[in-house]
Design brief:
The chain has about 180 residues and is mainly alpha-helical. It is built from eight helices and no strands.
């Protein structure tokens, strides 16, 4: 029984060490997902902060629909309070519509201020796309990690849930139809 007790002790120690390693790995991946989502939030906030400047620039050259401006402002306030991916997608769609309308105006296209804003938005959009790819990669790694054996057992014990991928709705990925 002495040797059996020692063997069982070592097996128990190995199991505990295995559980700790799996738990720490899953927590590390979950934190990386949170960090990636935070990066998306930073770029979205930068992008949405440019909206008032873009709107003012467009207003200077044309009469602008009050309903569109109000809708963008309301969505921006909702996003600032809940930071959800769905709200961000809605706001991005409306903003893309605004940009497309603004780009149709010849005088506005020549405006130096508009060109600077447009370049800033293009740069932020590029950074945002990269952040989305990184986030989705991190989410995939994390989700896979908590779904494979034996990690799935540890993940279920500690109530670890799958993370949501950042997916743009199909209708938002289509070309924007602009009606002026």
């Amino acid at each position: 029984m002495g040797n059996l007790g020692i063997v069982l002790f070592f097996i128990g120690c190995l199991l505990i060490i295995g559980v700790i390693l799996i738990f720490n790995n899953c927590m590390s991946m979950r934190n990386k997902v949170r960090q990636s989502k935070s990066t998306i939030d930073i770029y979205l906030t930068q992008r949405f902060d440019l909206i008032p400047n873009l709107v003012e620039c467009v207003k200077a050259y044309t009469s602008y629909e009050e309903a569109t401006l109000k809708g963008i402002t309301e969505l921006r306030e909702i996003y600032n309070s809940d930071k959800s991916i769905t709200t961000a997608n809605n706001l991005v769609g409306k903003m893309n519509n605004l940009i497309a309308k603004a780009e149709e105006m010849a005088d506005l296209k020549a405006s130096e201020q508009f060109i600077i804003l447009q370049k800033s938005l293009t740069k932020i959009e590029s950074q945002l796309q990269a952040a989305r790819r990184i986030y989705n990669g991190d989410v995939t790694l994390y989700n896979t990690s908590i779904q494979v054996f034996p990690n799935n057992i540890i993940a279920s014990i500690f109530n670890m849930k799958s993370a949501e991928l950042f997916v743009i709705d199909e209708y938002k990925a289509q070309n924007i139809e602009v009606k002026v």
